[in-house]
Amino acid sequence: MNETDAQIEAQAGAQTAAPAAAPAPGGRLRLRTLVAIRWIALLGQAITLAVVYFGLGYEILFVPAMAVIAFSGVLNVVLSVTRPSATWASDREAIWNLCFDVVQLAVLLGLTGGLQNPFAILVLAPVVVSAWALSRRSTLIISALALALVSVLAVWHLPLPWPNSGIQLSPVYIAGVWTALVIAVIFIASYVSSVAQENRQMSQALEATRLALAREQQLSALGGLAAAAAHELGTPLATIAVVARELQRELADDSPWRDDVELLHAESLRCRSILAGLAERPAWDDGSPYHRLPMVALVEAAAAAHQRDGVVLEIKAGPAIDSDATQPIVTRNAEVLHGLGTLMQNAMQFARHKVVVDLTWDEESVMLRIGDDGPGFDVTVLSRLGEPYYSTGPRDRRRGESQHMGLGIFIARTLLAHFGAGIEFSNEISGGAVVEIRWPRQQLEVRAEPVAGIERPRD
Asked: SMART domains this protein is in (predicted)?
């Protein structure tokens, strides 16, 4: 894990420190959700049994089947009374609840025809809920239970009471229903679980991106705060200096207060000198995110914090061949700064001796190429660079990725894409990694228009 990722994780941990209403570890289902789903299922089961028994006149074991439904209802009442409805169910608690639902449905199907019952497909419902909300281990347990019970129902069940002489379904048909349910359980569990996992990883990565951007914006705002402090404190410090100087003139040379007044005057002048230094920072280093500067200055600012001894950073800038376009003027934007800074950090960290940054532009686009002479990207992961939390193995640590973390490049790509940037990763034939970034010039560049004699940026 590189330094950027570690900082992001630390911030994420600090800002998401378990509030009272937060889910328990591994819990992504509220208990009231499980209870509400079960009430809906029980209501549907009871209505179906009543219609079949009283409406259609089928001779089913109505009382035992209703007893199974009533037992499940009692469990729901107990959970509602003994546990707060807003409680987040732990992974283990959710497993027990969903396993109970699978067993209850299997018993009900066993009393009403087994796999001949068209409602046998409802055995998929707990599997889908588990795949979406619980861990893969939990989904595996519930899926295995569902498959075992479906297999039992294919062999043992009470007959479905058809009217008149009845209909005997072929064993081949029952085998086909069993096969369909087995395949459906396996496919739906794996498919939904994979989609849910990717969705959770993307949500976590986007939250980490938001935290990283907020941090960059705070750092960027410090410069503006320092300039404002220098401006606001300048007047009172000047007044203190004047008063101290007047007191010096009034006090006799042998006055016991003279040394204190001279010290006060000297310190006030020292404070004014410090504030003047803050106010006279280079214009491009102004903390305002709307300050205008040449593109090459933005690249230099992004790389400044990541330079290290023994590695030479060479920045080349100029218009593209056959183009006489002027250098784009951009804003000192926290998103672009952080995205470029992360890519620069990886290049500087793994370069052996040199990092070369080529900045070119034309009338339509702005191109930035970051190359280093390090070991390069692992060719087995090039096509998946930028995916959050992508596990690639120990070799990928050469490029600033830990075995289970891909947040650094994901955040950089996400932030730069906000300005229309496309990013490509590759390796030099002679060795070393290459990152190429291309922006549409009109999305990156800002124009200025005079307002009351002052140029202000306009997107």
From this structure: HATPase_c (SM00387), HisKA (SM00388)
Query: 303-312 pLDDT, tens per residue?
Result: 887 888 888 8
Cα 391–Cα 396–Cα 402 angle in degrees, nearest 5: 60
Residues in Cβ contact with 45 at an 8 Å cutoff, skipping those fewer than 6 apart: 69, 108
Domain ranges for the chain, please list them.
24-169, 217-285, 292-449
pLDDT band for position 223 (cuts 50, 70, 90): low
CA 59, CA 68: separation in Å to the nearest integer?
Answer: 17
- Measured between alpha carbons, how far is 286 from 223 in angstroms, rounded to an integer? 6
211, 219 in Cβ contact below 8 A?
Answer: no
CA 180 vs CA 103, 107, 128, 152, 189: distances in Å: 19, 20, 16, 15, 14
191 contacts 199 by C-beta, under 8 angstroms: no
Q: What contacts 158, CB < 8 A, 6 or more positions away?
A: 61, 110, 111, 112, 113, 114
C-alpha span between 454 and 291 (Å, rounded): 13
For residue 10, give every residue at least 6 positions away whose Cβ sits within 8 Å of its Cβ, in sequence order, or none.
none
Residue in 394, 403, 347, 356 with CA at minimum distance from that of residue 375: 347
Contacts of 400 (CB under 8 A, 6+ apart): 2, 4, 5, 345, 346, 349, 350, 408, 409
Architecture of domain 292-449: 2-Layer Sandwich (3.30)
How many CB atoms are closer than 10 A to CB 70? 12
Is the confidence at residue 391, as pLDDT, over 50? no
